[in-house]
Amino acid sequence: MKETNRGNHIEAMFFYLGQTYRPLVEVLRMKHCPQRFNYAARYVYYDLPEDVVKHLENLIFIKPEDMEASIEEVRRWFWKEAESISEDEIKQRLSQ
């Protein structure tokens, strides 16, 4: 948010993508497609459920003035998903 407040929107977006958005995509991949959890945004349209992808789209195409709200939404979603998966679940999906 510091870079957004300074008007450095490009830098702010890179921080948002790297420190907020990408970890969310990784945890979603761990849940839905653990074989490719580290593929970042590559193949999300094929690997993740349609409703998840639509939600991700809404959180990536944002205006600078919406960034703070998006950061909070991504953080909430990240923790919800991270807490919902277990090591056993990931191992089971990997063996499929």
Helical residue percent band? over 70%
Structural class: mainly alpha
Based on Cα principal axes, name the global outline: elongated
Count of DSSP-assigned helices: 6
Separation of termini? 41 Å
- Radius of gyration, in Å, reads 14 Å
Mean pLDDT figure: 90
Show the helix and strand layout.
Elements: H1 2-5, H2 9-32, H3 44-47, H4 50-60, H5 67-84, H6 87-95
Helix pairs in contact: 2-4, 2-5
Describe this structure in words.
This protein is mostly helical. The chain has one domain. It contains six helices and no strands. It is elongated, with a radius of gyration of 14 Å. It starts with a helix and ends with a helix.
From the structure above, extract its key features.
96 residues, mainly alpha, 6 helices, elongated
Summarize the model shown.
The chain is mainly α. The protein has helices at 2-5, 9-32, 44-47, 50-60, 67-84, 87-95.
